Amino acid sequence: MRAIITTLLTAALAVALPSPTELSPRTMPSAHVVIEAGHGENATSTTLMIPIGTHYTNETAFAKVSTLYLLNPSAVTCVPYIQKVPTGYHGNPFTVGHPCQLSKEPITIGCVRCILAFYEDAVQTEVEEEQ
Known about the structure:
Layout: H1 2-16, E1 30-37, E2 44-51, E3 55-56, E4 67-72, E5 76-81, E6 100-101, E7 111-116, H2 117-130
Antiparallel strand pairs: 1-2, 1-4, 3-7, 4-6, 5-7
Helix pairs in contact: 1-2
Protein backbone atom coordinates (compact mmCIF):
# COMPACT_ATOMS: atom_id res chain seq x y z
CA MET A 1 0.00 0.00 0.00
CA ARG A 2 2.80 2.43 0.92
CA ALA A 3 4.66 1.63 -2.29
CA ILE A 4 1.52 2.42 -4.32
CA ILE A 5 0.95 5.73 -2.50
CA THR A 6 4.61 6.69 -2.87
CA THR A 7 4.57 5.80 -6.56
CA LEU A 8 1.39 7.84 -7.11
CA LEU A 9 2.83 10.79 -5.17
CA THR A 10 6.05 10.70 -7.17
CA ALA A 11 4.13 10.43 -10.45
CA ALA A 12 1.90 13.36 -9.46
CA LEU A 13 4.93 15.47 -8.64
CA ALA A 14 6.59 14.52 -11.91
CA VAL A 15 3.49 15.67 -13.80
CA ALA A 16 3.02 18.80 -11.69
CA LEU A 17 6.64 19.92 -11.94
CA PRO A 18 7.80 20.64 -15.47
CA SER A 19 11.17 19.29 -16.52
CA PRO A 20 14.07 21.79 -16.51
CA THR A 21 14.17 21.69 -20.32
CA GLU A 22 10.56 22.93 -20.45
CA LEU A 23 11.29 25.89 -18.21
CA SER A 24 12.80 29.19 -19.24
CA PRO A 25 14.28 31.58 -16.65
CA ARG A 26 11.03 33.57 -16.86
CA THR A 27 8.71 30.62 -16.11
CA MET A 28 10.92 28.70 -13.68
CA PRO A 29 9.78 28.82 -10.04
CA SER A 30 12.17 30.92 -7.99
CA ALA A 31 13.40 31.29 -4.44
CA HIS A 32 13.63 34.75 -2.86
CA VAL A 33 17.12 34.91 -1.30
CA VAL A 34 18.56 37.83 0.68
CA ILE A 35 22.33 38.28 0.63
CA GLU A 36 23.70 40.19 3.58
CA ALA A 37 27.25 41.60 3.49
CA GLY A 38 28.68 42.66 6.84
CA HIS A 39 26.90 43.03 10.17
CA GLY A 40 25.44 45.82 12.26
CA GLU A 41 25.23 49.40 10.99
CA ASN A 42 27.51 48.74 7.98
CA ALA A 43 25.50 45.77 6.68
CA THR A 44 24.13 45.88 3.16
CA SER A 45 21.59 43.52 1.64
CA THR A 46 20.48 42.45 -1.81
CA THR A 47 17.45 40.33 -2.70
CA LEU A 48 17.70 37.89 -5.61
CA MET A 49 15.27 35.58 -7.37
CA ILE A 50 17.13 32.26 -7.73
CA PRO A 51 15.60 29.70 -10.12
CA ILE A 52 14.80 26.44 -8.32
CA GLY A 53 16.58 23.34 -9.59
CA THR A 54 19.56 25.13 -11.15
CA HIS A 55 22.84 26.45 -9.87
CA TYR A 56 22.74 30.23 -9.93
CA THR A 57 25.79 32.45 -10.33
CA ASN A 58 26.02 36.22 -9.95
CA GLU A 59 29.57 37.53 -9.61
CA THR A 60 28.46 40.98 -8.48
CA ALA A 61 25.99 39.86 -5.80
CA PHE A 62 28.17 36.95 -4.60
CA ALA A 63 31.37 39.04 -4.32
CA LYS A 64 30.63 39.98 -0.69
CA VAL A 65 28.47 37.60 1.34
CA SER A 66 28.24 37.17 5.11
CA THR A 67 24.78 35.63 5.61
CA LEU A 68 22.16 34.14 3.27
CA TYR A 69 18.44 34.15 4.07
CA LEU A 70 15.62 32.36 2.25
CA LEU A 71 12.40 34.38 2.37
CA ASN A 72 10.17 31.92 0.47
CA PRO A 73 8.97 29.39 -0.54
CA SER A 74 9.15 27.26 2.59
CA ALA A 75 9.45 23.95 0.67
CA VAL A 76 12.88 24.98 -0.67
CA THR A 77 16.40 24.31 0.61
CA CYS A 78 19.36 26.26 -0.77
CA VAL A 79 23.11 25.58 -0.51
CA PRO A 80 25.91 28.10 -1.22
CA TYR A 81 29.04 26.76 -2.96
CA ILE A 82 32.55 28.22 -3.15
CA GLN A 83 32.91 27.12 -6.80
CA LYS A 84 30.77 28.32 -9.72
CA VAL A 85 29.42 24.76 -9.98
CA PRO A 86 27.53 22.97 -7.18
CA THR A 87 30.33 20.61 -6.13
CA GLY A 88 33.05 20.65 -3.51
CA TYR A 89 33.22 22.99 -0.53
CA HIS A 90 29.95 24.62 0.47
CA GLY A 91 28.22 26.42 3.30
CA ASN A 92 25.42 25.02 5.39
CA PRO A 93 22.04 24.58 3.71
CA PHE A 94 19.57 27.37 4.48
CA THR A 95 15.77 27.39 4.58
CA VAL A 96 13.03 29.81 5.62
CA GLY A 97 13.79 30.82 9.22
CA HIS A 98 17.21 29.12 9.21
CA PRO A 99 19.84 31.37 7.59
CA CYS A 100 23.37 30.40 6.60
CA GLN A 101 26.00 32.56 8.30
CA LEU A 102 29.17 32.08 6.28
CA SER A 103 31.45 34.59 7.99
CA LYS A 104 31.43 37.75 10.09
CA GLU A 105 33.42 39.42 7.33
CA PRO A 106 32.12 39.23 3.75
CA ILE A 107 33.52 36.42 1.57
CA THR A 108 33.06 35.49 -2.11
CA ILE A 109 30.92 32.52 -3.13
CA GLY A 110 30.57 30.97 -6.59
CA CYS A 111 26.96 29.80 -6.81
CA VAL A 112 23.80 28.90 -4.93
CA ARG A 113 21.66 25.85 -5.70
CA CYS A 114 18.04 25.72 -4.51
CA ILE A 115 15.90 22.57 -4.61
CA LEU A 116 12.34 21.67 -3.73
CA ALA A 117 12.76 19.81 -0.45
CA PHE A 118 9.46 17.88 -0.59
CA TYR A 119 10.20 16.54 -4.09
CA GLU A 120 13.62 15.27 -3.01
CA ASP A 121 12.03 13.70 0.11
CA ALA A 122 9.41 11.87 -1.99
CA VAL A 123 12.06 10.41 -4.28
CA GLN A 124 14.22 9.40 -1.31
CA THR A 125 11.24 7.77 0.45
CA GLU A 126 10.47 5.68 -2.61
CA VAL A 127 14.07 4.45 -2.83
CA GLU A 128 14.16 3.57 0.88
CA GLU A 129 10.88 1.61 0.72
CA GLU A 130 11.99 -0.47 -2.25
CA GLN A 131 15.05 -1.79 -0.42
